[in-house]
Amino acid sequence: MIQFTNKYDSPLGEITLASDGKSLTGLWFDGQKYFGYTLPPKTENKQLPVFEKTKEWLNCYFSGSEPNFALPVKMYGSEFRMAVWKILQHIPYGQLTTYGEIAAEIAKKRGVARISAQAVGGAVGHNPVSIVVPCHRVVGANGSLTGFGGGIPRKIELLQLERVNMDQLKY
């Protein structure tokens, strides 16, 4: 399957967007951990309606407003990663959750006693659609800012942009 890419110049650095032609399949800060790991070796740089819509969404987001429309997102991963990413998509703008809370939610859904918060952290770290699927809203149980592929300074900027109370966080 061919993947298309495009660039977006954000206030926090250049972002690469990816799409299958209809849905957003990737959004990474250039150079971030796991950058483009879901992309095939060859992609085609192209203007697509989904990229224009994503740029509109990002413009709204980086202006300090919560975008009031959803983007078509398609993610590929293991059943476990998909379960984690689905939870990420439901973390409200300006709110936080912890790796442990996500682990507990998945354990409950699966009917098991416990899921490792570290395993959740690995799945969160491999989120291929940063910002839109808000992995930056996940923090450690003690409020520590860990595990953002785009780097902790960007995580701080994104949380401040969403007006999260930073007093409770450790960084």
Mean pLDDT, nearest integer?
Answer: 96
Q: What separation lies between the terminal Cα atoms?
A: 41 Å
CATH class assignment of the largest domain: Mainly Alpha
Strand content: 15-25%
CATH superfamily of the largest domain: Winged helix-like DNA-binding domain superfamily/Winged helix DNA-binding domain
Count of helical stretches: 5
- SS class: alpha/beta
CATH topology of the largest domain: Arc Repressor Mutant, subunit A
Could you give the order of strands across the largest sheet?
3-2-1-4
Task: Classify the helix fraction into a percent range.
Answer: 25-40%
> How large, in whole angstroms, is the Cα Rg?
16 Å
Integer tally of domains: 2
Unreliable parts: none
Bulk shape: globular
Task: Note down, in words, how this protein is organized.
This protein is of the alpha/beta class and 171 residues long. The chain has two domains: 4-62, Methylated DNA-protein cysteine methyltransferase domain (Double Stranded RNA Binding Domain, 2-Layer Sandwich); 79-168, Winged helix-like DNA-binding domain superfamily/Winged helix DNA-binding domain (Arc Repressor Mutant, subunit A). 32% of the residues lie in helices and 15% in strands. It has five helices and six strands. The chain has a four-stranded mixed beta sheet, with helices on one face. A two-stranded parallel ribbon has the order 5-6. The radius of gyration is 16 Å and the shape is globular. The protein starts with a strand and ends in a 10-residue tail after the last helix. The model has no long low-confidence stretch (mean pLDDT 96).
